[in-house]
Amino acid sequence: MFNRISASSARRMAAVLLVLLVMPSVWMRTAVTRGDADDLQLLELAYDEAGHGEFRVTGVWEVTSPDLVFGGYSALLAGQDGTLVTFSDRGRFLSFSGPGGPDLPASIGAQLPDPGLEQRLWDIESATQDPASGTFWLGYEGEHAIQRYTARGEPDGHVLFPAMPWQDNGGMESLVRLADGRFVALPETEARLYLFADDPVRDGGTTSVPIEWPEAGYSPTDAAQLPDGRLLVLMRRVAWGLPPTFDVILVVGALPAGEEPWQPELALTLHDLVPSDNFEGMDLVEGADGGADIWLISDDNFSAFQRTLLVRLELAVLESEAEPDGAHEKAREDRSPRAFSRVLAI
Question: Bias regions of kind Basic and acidic residues — which residues (predicted)?
Fold first, then answer.
């Protein structure tokens, strides 16, 4: 019986079950404050320290705050200085220092779109940035759209996609600005990769290719480009139970060069290494050696049965893949250095 349930039906069943589980959380959460992130706490959790191919977990934390608008984080931007900014599906941002980062106060507030769209663009699901200018872009569900922002967090143009064949709650879960200025978008409910030739807000032109995912039943929730140019995708599926949990994997592959299907490979089974939860946000910070720190954050759905978890992974350069002396430095000269401009409260 269960083997005959379609992927879309399974997603709807999961959503209903999660709503039922969230309802009691209104009464079960701790006392809240409003508009103040001073009480933000990061509690370190246990994890599997073993290396797994290119990837190794180097930290897991539970992020907590009594603030009324804390939670629901679905997108993440990571700064070279250790600052993290995460965005919620309620149109909010949270800026805070990651473990080992600068001792800066946390900030929380509304991430407003262009005037007149406040009631339409609020379900933020993805984020990406231009490291040179600090400009960043947010992807939205419901009203499938991309909103561009200046480095100061000011809305700076948008584009709507009313013709996209995506479900209201299955749109642009992943948005990546590539090193060459192109953009990649991955919807949750369609196995296709959309490639924009330029900034989508400037109508850069779009092509798409089908995707053959390496594991059945998983949906993409975020993506990032690795230093070597490959695309890393965070994926999850509901693991049925009471309460339900989530299986989470990372897949990776070189970007498609033509019209052939994109066929990424399984890179890491994350739920075997860290506490299981609804991981939806991902970004990375490149290291000087060609590796990177990869940050993940989970969406607690404002539920007492879920948590906001922060995970740090290390992407190591394997010895067998080491480049000749000087080759990597030359490659880095051709890429813009990653930078970050902190999002300010609006």
Answer: 325-337
Q: Could you write out the DSSP letters of every residue in 177-246?
A: E-TTS-EEEEESSS-EEEEESS-GGG---EEEEEB--SSTT-EEEEEEE-TTSPEEEEEEEEE-SSS-EE
- Give the distance from CA 66 to its chain's centroid: 23
For residue range 63-116, what is the model confidence (pLDDT) as tens digits? 999 988 999 999 999 999 999 999 999 999 999 999 988 888 999 999 999 999
Domain ranges of the chain: 2-333
Question: Cα 295 vs. chain centroid, distance in angstroms?
Answer: 9
Identify the helix (H) or strand (E) that includes residue 269: strand 265-269
Instruction: State the Cα–Cα distance between residues 136 and 125, nearest whole angstrom.
Output: 14
Please state the φ and ψ torsions of residue 10, each to the nearest 5 degrees.
-65, -40
Q: Does the domain made of 2-333 have the CATH classification 2.60.40?
A: no
Place of tokens 């663009």: 121
pLDDT recorded at residue 13: 52
CA terminus-to-terminus distance, the chain = 50
Q: Which region holds residue 10: left if phi is over 0, alpha if psi is between -120 and 50, else beta? A: alpha
* 336-to-76, 179, 227, 332 alpha-carbon distances in Å: 20, 7, 11, 8
> Which residue, 7, 326, 296, is CA-closest to 174?
296
Match 């019209």 to its residue by tokens. Answer: 259
DSSP calls for 125-182: EEEEE-TTT--EEEEETTTTEEEEE-TTS-EEEEEE-TTS---TTSSEEEEEE-TTS-
Amino acid at position 72, single letter: G
Burial bucket for residue 248 (CB in 10 Å: 0-12, 13-18, 19+): buried
Rounded to two decimals, the pTM is: 0.83
